[in-house]
Design a protein that fits this description.
By secondary structure, the chain is mainly beta. Among the domains are: about 35 residues, no CATH class; about 120 residues, 7 Propeller (Methylamine Dehydrogenase, Chain H). It contains one helix and 36 strands. The protein has a four-stranded mixed beta sheet, with no helix packed on it. A four-stranded antiparallel beta sheet has the order 4-36-35-34, with no helix packed on it. A four-stranded antiparallel beta sheet has the order 5-6-7-8, with no helix packed on it. The longest helix is centred in the middle third of the chain and has 4 residues. The relative contact order is 0.13.
Length: about 375
């Protein structure tokens, strides 16, 4: 099972790793939670299949080793990503041509967020840095660390930190406009959380709740419970929402880490349905289905209206799957061995497969135009077309 990285807030910051069976942490010290790590299950062997799509490489580029908290951002045909050591790369999403590249020369904690003009990242030194046209515009010190890419929208830069504070900055000057903090558990995931928008609202994951805020002042409009604490110790009681939201019209479907999958009416702030689920990555979907990968590699699809399971597949179990991605009738997921799998969204059967590289697929694939863009852990950025 994939190890969980946690952050402990108590007068300082601690990062610890937990095996599935036990956890121990000491303030300001890095520890491994288990004295011995259970042997990982062997990845399921890839089965033979009859190809139904032809996958063709379109373009490729290099961007440097990618951190697990990095993201792919595309706006106005500008594809942006940042390496774990702070190499910020902006490519033309159509051709893969380099637009500009800047070496920030500092380890990155989260990013990149972009509106196609401004590009924002967060460093491990808790600095929010915003660039325009390949040049630094401003940087500010944050009150805490962050593992969630900034949201750049409406002339502002929004940030979610690990002490569950949401902050808004002026995009041009970096002036802090407002901040709102929500009390929560001491432990938070060392993983990207939810920070997105819906109509005129800022949508944020705070502990196990999905909260809609006014982008002008941070005042909450509504909040919906997605996952509740469970268990008897701090780790088992941990509940956080993970990045990767499936939005169709006014319905937002989200995942609470290892707890639940839920769909919410974002216009009303009410839950449509919630189902128990044991995954740690986000969701994708269409107007009838929600696609998810569980932590053991099982794929589950739920009916978007009712939450009933439509199909399940164990063909990719223990292969370390990314979040799924769905667009224009194609369902795609990557694995830790570097394979990209195109699946039939009706039943989960493999219809195409290609290996990106052996380092593993780092992030959920992204659709732009007719191409799928994927990134390996070694920083190979590759666009494919499947027809």
């Amino acid at each position: 099972m994939k190890q969980l990285q946690l952050n402990l807030r108590q007068g300082g910051t601690v990062v610890a790793k937990r095996c599935a069976s036990w956890f121990s942490a000491f303030l300001l010290v890095f520890l491994t939670a288990c004295s011995s790590t259970p042997e990982k299950p062997k990845p399921t062997e890839l089965a033979q299949f009859a190809p139904q799509l032809t996958v063709t490489p379109v373009w490729s580029a290099q961007a440097g080793p990618i951190a697990s908290t990095s993201t792919l951002s595309v706006n106005a045909s500008r594809l942006a990503l940042v390496s774990q050591n702070g190499l910020l790369t902006v490519l033309n999403a159509d051709s893969g041509a380099l637009v500009w590249q800047v070496a920030l020369n500092t380890p990155i904690s989260a990013g990149v967020g972009s509106d196609g003009n401004r590009f924002s990242v967060i460093t491990q030194a808790n600095e929010l840095i915003t660039l325009t046209d390949g040049k630094e515009s401003w940087r500010v010190k944050l009150p805490a660390s962050s593992f969630t890419a900034p949201l750049v929208a409406g002339g502002r830069v929004f940030v979610l930190t690990t002490d569950r504070t949401v902050l808004a900055f002026d995009g041009a000057s970096g002036q802090r406009l407002w901040s709102q903090q929500r009390a929560g558990d001491a432990l938070v995931l060392k993983q990207a959380g939810i920070l997105t928008s819906f109509q005129d609202s800022l949508i944020v994951g705070l502990s196990g709740r999905l909260v809609a805020m006014s982008p002008s002042n941070g005042v909450a409009k509504w909040e919906a419970l997605i996952g509740s604490s469970r268990g008897t110790n701090e780790v088992e009681r941990l509940v956080d929402l993970v990045a990767g939201v499936s939005r169709v019209n006014q319905t937002l479907c989200t995942r609470a880490y290892q707890t639940a999958v839920s769909c919410t009416d974002a216009a009303k702030g009410t839950n449509v349905w919630t189902r128990t689920a044991s995954g740690h990555v986000g969701l994708s979907g269409n107007d009838t289905q929600v696609f998810g990968t569980e932590s053991d590699g099982k794929m589950i699809t739920w009916n978007r209206l009712t939450g009933q399971v439509v199909w399940q597949s164990e063909s990719l179990r223990f292969r370390g799957l990314t979040a799924p991605a769905f667009s224009e009738g194609q369902l795609l997921v990557g694995d830790e061995q570097g394979w990209l799998h195109w699946l039939d969204p009706k039943n989960g059967q493999t219809v195409a497969r290609v290996q990106l590289d052996a380092s593993g697929v780092a992030l959920a694939p992204l659709r732009f135009g007719k191409n799928w863009i994927s990134v390996s852990k070694n920083g190979l950025v590759q666009a494919y077309r499947a027809e």
